[in-house]
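step 4 of 6: structure.
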Amino acid sequence: MTEHVQIRELAEHVGDDVSVLGWVHNLRSSGKVAFLIVRDGTGLVQGVMSAGDVSPEVWERLEGLDYEASVKVGGSVREDERAPGGYELSLTDLEIVGPSAEEYPIQLKEHGVDFLLEHRHLWLRTPRQVAIMRVRDEVVKAIRDFLYEQGFVNVDTPILTGSIGESAGTLFETEYFDLGAAYLAQTGQLYNEATAAALGRVYCFGPTFRAEKSKTRRHLTEFWMLEPEIAWCDSECNMRIQEGLVCYIVERAVERCRDLLENELERDLSKLASARAPFPRLSYSEAIERVQSLGSSIQWGDDLGAEDETLVAQDYDRPVFVYNYPKQAKAFYMKENPDDPRTVLCDDLIAPEGYGEIIGGSQREDDYDRLLARIREEGLPEEAYGWYLDLRRYGTYPHSGFGLGLERTVAWICGVPHIRECIAFPRTLNRLYP
Amino acid sequence: MTEHVQIRELAEHVGDDVSVLGWVHNLRSSGKVAFLIVRDGTGLVQGVMSAGDVSPEVWERLEGLDYEASVKVGGSVREDERAPGGYELSLTDLEIVGPSAEEYPIQLKEHGVDFLLEHRHLWLRTPRQVAIMRVRDEVVKAIRDFLYEQGFVNVDTPILTGSIGESAGTLFETEYFDLGAAYLAQTGQLYNEATAAALGRVYCFGPTFRAEKSKTRRHLTEFWMLEPEIAWCDSECNMRIQEGLVCYIVERAVERCRDLLENELERDLSKLASARAPFPRLSYSEAIERVQSLGSSIQWGDDLGAEDETLVAQDYDRPVFVYNYPKQAKAFYMKENPDDPRTVLCDDLIAPEGYGEIIGGSQREDDYDRLLARIREEGLPEEAYGWYLDLRRYGTYPHSGFGLGLERTVAWICGVPHIRECIAFPRTLNRLYP
């Protein structure tokens, strides 16, 4: 029996007889020679089969071969510059493991996005989707490596929560035994404000939920968010950590996924090369002036919308910080700015090229009385925040943190316009299947 | 201004004047000398203050100091073998950042577990809980490093799902816009059977949910599970990967968290040192015979209960595989054993010392007709499994995977009897707060 090797390992097996297990990506035949492209999740390889080199029985198996049939092919590995991936197989054997007898739903022609989403379990097999998933994986690993090296402790926060979070009205609700309603967490931040007082620097990184009726290319009802929380760190320190993290992620993705980005996703890597520290910084008021001068009707006090973000970003070749927003536009837990109490100590990081906000961060309100007043102003259920207020009652401390949207970050790095392609099984207003 | 250093960095600052930001862990005073133990999440350090060395104003601040007040202390770093952590601060300054004026709820005396769980946000600050959280973090990082090195791609699977999963009746349910009910996923496996056909080797690692009315020391309603799924891998290959992963995790945790395990958690590390491959393997039938001989009333066909698992495990100093359970005791998606169709190709990995099952794995049923028959036998909603059946319709392939319970694994490594201490904010039948 020949050795089973993954396609990405072929370079180490030039001249060897090997077998590859995978799926039929394409098949062309010209009389007595067939060109069979097989993929196995680690790459694509072309196999060349001559009718004269194999038994009639093996040659006939080509007839029954449809897209995405699973196969075991055997042959010797040849280096060939012209071949996709740089290596080719001279085939001597072919076994069909699992046929794909009916017409395979996803053909090379263009399909509508609804059709593709309905067949997401198969759409994911196409090279573009494989590339996005691999970049996502690299981004996740880069984030975790960066934080580990910096002494952050991963603390997973609960999804099932009492009535606590960013905003009511956009919460998914479920019955929780005899305890009444539980809500799916929109953030782990509040919980990790507790654990940062135990461990110093912490982060959670998991799914978060918004029951929002938004139908934009930047919204999902379920998405992954990284949320570091840092003890003894003010807003300035917070922005420095964000900057360092984002630079690291982009550099790692470009370094380790260059081929996928450049060739499969056709990403212009020069646009990512400019994402270097320091990132420009604009105060909210400066940003408002700028977008007003560009024709936006936004007024001081409003949050920046997607279009305003694009206007702010167009002046820069790298992500830009907009900091210190008006209190009314932001969440209750952000710390009042001592130099301008109309505003809070916070920042949004806006990606270039119209990819929009990828990070929202802030210094947290660490004053018990101010925080309680804000909870009351917002009409939040005070009793649910008892433990959160305790953090200001027992050894309160300056701390900051931020949330990085994983799918938005991957969309920017990959140059993908819609974040629904940046998660394996997107959940939107109209989609819960597959 | 003196440099702010973390306690774990003190070794690099011997002889320097530094400041440490943290919380008061303990305070003893004998007339003119005070001993102040501060923790900052990275460690504990003792500061020694002599009344003669500081201004009366600073000395008086000691009076107002309660447990868990947050402080900034300044002083010079001295090496001292007798000190906890090996270094001491000769204090010259003390500022109270956030007092802890009311009596701090958690005192050095013993508290009941309900009281501690109600104050989980503060309980987490105690050294034992800090140690468990740090070991958990190391285990998570070790898992991700291991899989990354082995070419696995992290693919996050959805939490919000249609009616698909392990078993009805133990699902949390939520309204999903106009699409009716959605359920919180009990597993990501089925989704990653699709992505393994796209990417080869994949894993998800996130929260999973069971609305079970179980009240045991091994159950949570929300817990984290690692689920690798591996293309072209049979049950034998699956067990080898599990074995390699578990050995790696244990070795990494012992290597990088030795001090916490040995000194804070008082774990007998010799018990972990024996967790080396190969792990013993027992067929289900052999396991039944053994536990019957030890007095269990279990019958062939029953799943092993917690007590049976403990009986099986007591013969070994390392985890033990029990493989090929009866079909009736296991999930519908497990592949029928061709050598004994009463059983399926699966394995449970049972930790030693009574910590119970930490992994459940199986080869998946890759035959369309057999899988459909099993779905019908179990009375599962066939239409919801349309996409899952597609994986057997288009290029079916042999594949296997497993689920590793994170909290159970951490409990075993830490030697903690109840898994509720192995997650930051445990969710149980009676607990949704904090």
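step 5 of 6: annotate
 - Residues 57 and 382 of chain A are 76 Å apart (CA to CA).
 - The mean pLDDT of chain A is 95.
step 6 of 6: archive
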